[in-house]
């Protein structure tokens, strides 16, 4: 488990209104969970993160879920990337009253910490 920066960068794989979306999150930790499936060993990188409420048009863009690459930085200023172009994460945003939930769904073949 690693402590991470509260700044999250989301880069969509396909064309969207912005090339990069930036969000500010509450403090969170991230620890991928090893899994075995029919396809072999992988790391489950699913994570729900509470973020500041983004504008309505951004929520509408991500409500159905979008393929994207999610990046954040740890306390040692190393970049951690969830998803890649060939196997992106699915990112959704669900609004609450004063905040929103950034839902990341991704299975990776290698650790995002490498």
Describe this structure in words.
This protein has 1 helix and 12 strands, in the order βββββββαβββββ. It is mostly beta strands and 114 residues long. Strands 2, 3, 7, 8, 9, 10 and 11 form a 7-stranded antiparallel sheet that branches. Strands 5-6-12 form a 3-stranded antiparallel sheet, with no helix packed on it. The longest helix has 7 residues.
Concise overview:
The protein contains one helix and twelve strands; from the N terminus they run βββββββαβββββ.
- How far the N terminus sits from the C terminus, by CA atoms, comes to 14 Å
Oligomer: single chain
Q: Mean pLDDT, rounded to whole units?
A: 90
Strand count, sense and closure of the main sheet? Answer: 7 strands, antiparallel
Helix content range: under 10%
Low-confidence stretches: none
Total helical segments: 1
Shape: globular
SS content category: mainly beta
Number of strands: 12
Q: What percent strand?
A: over 45%
Rounded to an integer in angstroms, the radius of gyration calculated over CA atoms is 14 Å
Q: Give, in order, the helices and strands.
A: EEEEEEEHEEEEE
Describe the protein's topology.
Elements: E1 2-3, E2 7-12, E3 21-24, E4 29-30, E5 33-37, E6 40-44, E7 47-52, H1 56-62, E8 66-73, E9 79-82, E10 89-95, E11 99-105, E12 107-108
Antiparallel strand pairs: 1-4, 2-3, 2-8, 5-6, 6-12, 7-11, 8-9, 8-10, 10-11
């Amino acid at each position: 488990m690693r402590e991470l920066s509260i700044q999250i960068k989301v880069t969509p794989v396909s064309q969207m209104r912005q090339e990069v979306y930036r969000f500010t999150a509450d403090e969170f930790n991230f620890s991928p969970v090893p899994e075995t499936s029919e396809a072999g060993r992988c790391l489950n990188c699913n994570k729900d993160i509470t973020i500041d409420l983004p504008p309505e048009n951004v929520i509408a863009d991500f409500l159905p879920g979008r393929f994207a690459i999610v990046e954040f930085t740890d306390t040692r200023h190393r970049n951690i990337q969830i998803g890649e172009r060939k196997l992106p994460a699915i990112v959704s945003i669900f609004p609450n009253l004063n905040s929103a939930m950034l839902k990341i769904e991704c299975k990776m073949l290698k650790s995002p910490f490498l």
